Amino acid sequence: MNNLKAIFFDADGTLVNHKECEKQALIYVFDSIGVNYKNDYQDIFRHIEQTIWDNESYNGIPVPRETVFTYRFKLLFEKLNINYNDCVKANDFFKVGLANSVALNNNAIEIIEYLHGKKYLLCVVTNGLIKLQRPRVINSKIGEFITNIIVSEEVDAPKPNALIFNTLLKRIELNANDVVMVGDSIKNDIQGARNAGIKSIWYNPENHKNETGILPDYEINDLLQLKNFVNKTAE
What is the pTM of this model? Predict the structure, then answer.
């Protein structure tokens, strides 16, 4: 890829430390409702949320996707024996806390500064809501180096839909063979890049086994390995 001009990054799980941001958001929720936060609350919250997304139900009760964001707090408060019934407001608190959290993954700052110094365009391609995703990138220590951020809400097409990638390519006036996509999700980032004809790099810090049949073009377990990748492409 000696014509590499831009690098697309996923946000959560790649540049952004989603687990830490989620923790900060939960602390904000509990502070807002006047309840002391305890460290095991996040594990309980994550289990509830993951169970719902995986099964579209919880304990055999169907949970429509459009109600997941509030229903997860109903279940959380019930599990913790917390008497707070306004789950819509709790979710609003969570969104505010999440939007204001700026935790980054290991070596995210160093690699972004390095790539910026190499004159690559650095862009973020992320699923989610604009008001939640943009601030977490823009207000972080890498915000000044990011050329463009595209959020699925803008185009009503989440990854792996090719539209979100193609829209960004058009915006920065580049072709698919001018860029590479870096992300931690095989399903969203790697498959999405393939759908758009873009080369992909799977960021796999925990060395998970890929059993999906979706093959990335490259694999790294540390963001700093991108230094070697771009240097080789420049040869």
Answer: 0.90
